[in-house]
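User: Could you check the structure of this?
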Amino acid sequence: MDPITVAALYQFAPFADPAALRAPLLQLCAEHGVKGTLLLAGEGVNGTIAGSAAGIAAVVAHVCSLPHCAGLDVKYSTAATMPFARMKVRLKREIVTMGVDGIDPLASVGTYIDPHDWNALISDPDTIVIDTRNDYEVAVGTFAGAIDPQTRSFREFPAWFRRQRDALLGEGRQPRVAMFCTGGIRCEKSTAFLKSEGVDAVYHLKGGILNYLEQVPETESLWQGECFVFDERVAIGHGLKPGSHVLCGPCGRPVDAAGQQSPLYRPGVSCPACHDEASGDAGA
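Assistant: Sure, the predicted structure tokens are below.
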């Protein structure tokens, strides 16, 4: 049996009528047995889909044919089984929610850094490295020395940066700021946001962690742990191979191999992170 092809894709593009794009996408995905989630907004398209190689190729070709989407950013991986239960195409205000008006990656964005050049940038002591992902994602894996904003959602990132700006940059100091995320889309907005805040030397990992894990050999890698992904694979490692984490059904947190050996881990009931909540002991 052929493996399932998984495609993580996004494109910032000015869609005049995103609602009109929804039905054709749903129909095409249904025809090819493609499942996953695609988000449509006035600023573009974002999502992850899975299916046969031919089915994914058909959907990707369709998205590339949409206005201003010829340069669609797509990262491919595989899964042994279908990682999604159904297909959803949703209309949203933003394809990645930051909640700050006027942030337009098409107008201003950070400098893209190729995965093979990333190690040199983040190893420079004059570079501040920021993981723009959420706390539960960072807990699964991150780059050595990266700052964890400990945010629960990307919407919290702007407020975090504004609170930490002086501590990060220092008065009159202009260090390089390098940021990264899973597939690159959050960094499109986070770098555009920092530039709108007057930070000029802003860089981000082209194609995100997924591109880095695919392109950089494990022997040369500065990545530690696995990369959380938003599907039933839970996490992947170097070479985009399936990782060791599972998802706790009740709380939705990823559980590593050690956590799965804990007596507090009961599949479908609780994990070490939520055991007290599940047992009613929280706050006791």
